[in-house]
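Final paragraph of the annual report: two paired records, presented back to back.
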Amino acid sequence: VNTAERIEEQTTLTEAALAAGEITMKQADILSRALAKLPEDVTSEQRLMCEKTLLKDAQKLTLKDLRRRAARITETYRKTVDEVDADEDELLRKKEEAARAKTSFSMWDNNDGTVTGRFTLPEAQGAMLKTALDALAAPHQKVGTVNAATGQMDEVGFGQTYPQRLGHAFATLVEHLPADQLPSNGGVSAVVTVNLDLDTLMGGVKAAGLSDGTRISAGEARRLACSAQLVPMVLNGSPLPLDLGSANRYFNRSSRRAMEKRDGGCTTPGCDRDARWTEAHHLNPYAISKTTDIRDGALLCSFHHHRAHEQSWIGRINPDDGHVEWKLPGSETWQRNTRWRP
């Protein structure tokens, strides 16, 4: 109804073109919105010129391109490009102000181990988020382990459907947020604290807890402790910390760069996820080795990092050429990712 009223109020030829089937309802909506946003000094003749031009362009442009064209439609009657640029800038400025007013975020606990949310973002930030998630989901990339008999990937990895892949990609993006660059909340920095028993850190199965009371498995706590910006607070059967560690136990920027050069990406055999979206994993648990050294580290994508902790993968640095090798579950042979390295 709103679209119909806008078409009647703002256009002259569009209603007839829509009735004749020359344009679609979505195209008519774009045209009517564009004409409604014309500068106040536009004359009826200029308005008609703009409408005729958009009707003609609608025959060959996609909806996305038609919207972009509509933002500069004043070029049909403006004398200079600078005037058109000013019109477009003013239109975009008002659009961005309206988008900021509509921006919102909400999330709630489903009480089944998941959290559901809803958000509305300005177009620019939405494009940034979509680009990052698409890069992480990497629909064209293989994720899993190659079955020697079939030559196929054994594991689905980030999910079969595109929404599943984006969901897992979003979870990975959250884990990579630079917590040390976020503002403090009531004097407390945005660093997650993991509370776990010493036995859990050493390889036990007792659950751990986050600073907000969220419970996580022992394997997930050890995985996060490998690379996330978190402080492990180890307890010894009492509410007082046995050891309040520092974030220095994770691999620093220099060691990350060295491993990226050496590994080239996820070190799991058959995985082609590149180094940009991998996590640093201690081949020997930090609680045992007490060291954070590239000679005891390996890069794994988020999916395989989960698997390494859940299935207790055995890894090593090959003594001959210095590359990472794995004994995967069910195999007694050392395997490696044979990616090309310049």
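The closing record of the year follows.
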Amino acid sequence: MRGDTDNYRELFLNDVPMMDARAPVEFAKGAFPGVVNLPLMNDIERQKVGTCFKQHGQQAAIALGHQLVSGEIKAARLQAWSDFVRAHPNGYLYCFRGGLRSQIVQQWLHEAGIDYPRVVGGYKAMRHFLLETTEQAVEQCAFVLVGGMTGTGKTEVLAQLSNGLDLEGLANHRGSSFGKRATPQPSQIDFENALAIRLLKMRAAGIEQFVVEDEARLVGRCSIPLPLFQGMQQFPLVWLEDSLEGRIERILKDYVIDLCAEFIAEQGETGFAAFAERLQQSLVNISKRLGGERYQRLALLMDQALAEQARSGAVDLHRGWIEGLLGEYYDPMYAYQRESKAERIEFAGEQRAVVEYLLQRASTGKL
């Protein structure tokens, strides 16, 4: 029989299957990628046991738990755990602290003739390990930022680099006011966990220098972990450039063509209406910063473009509001940012040159 483990590094590096015995409400707040939630108690049962523990102590709470999870309920949960074990014989189970709940699951499985190991320290210890993983990477590794005007293709640069760390991909958000995807963002804890695991795996592959996009603290509603964000205020910067035409075409593809396709794939017939509403709401969200006259003008251009797209499928009219938004809103803001960060910029150029520079930078181990 395999024993219980506290080797969190190996668990995450090898994507070891894990069964989370916490209640659904705990799991929803934060979990690890690929983990399956098969709780000992549901949310109501957990709440009742917790109240009993506060009022009457541990023994009474344990007795109530056994009473609540008995008979057919216990049999159904035991069946679900047994199915998981058969499907994942090399896996582990855990609860919040690796204590009573995972021990009970382990005991009931044992009584059913199945020995299955658990993670010592549970979710709390693994979560702490991942937070430390991110902090250590920031302390011990080199980072370089990719900055540039909106639409220059910073994510495309990261995709061409083995040491590219795509924060927007992990956050399922494109980072700007228009960055929401058709599918929801992960919870804050899920985002942090996924980022730490990505760092862990990249470092295990020998990568000690990372390239990340120059982001604000929030990527949508996901907040970049403080140690990394603080580091980003000092990391050297590479500035990506492209023509206005190239940027308009890229934004048209990402924020209109591809986003529309995402919504239709997710929602079918109602997808286009949801896409149009999302685009219009994104403009509303920055209307105060745009000012009344500018907002009304760009909103009219957007409405006309959406009407034509709905009628004929043509997207050409979208270039009007995109160009206006870049020239009158985003570009002045980014020009100011570039000026404020000028002393940190060590290279500037178009995509191919930037990729070549970053590849060379990684190969020479420049810090």
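Residues 141-367 form a domain with the Rossmann fold fold (CATH 3.40.50). This concludes the annual technical report; the extension proposal builds directly on these records.
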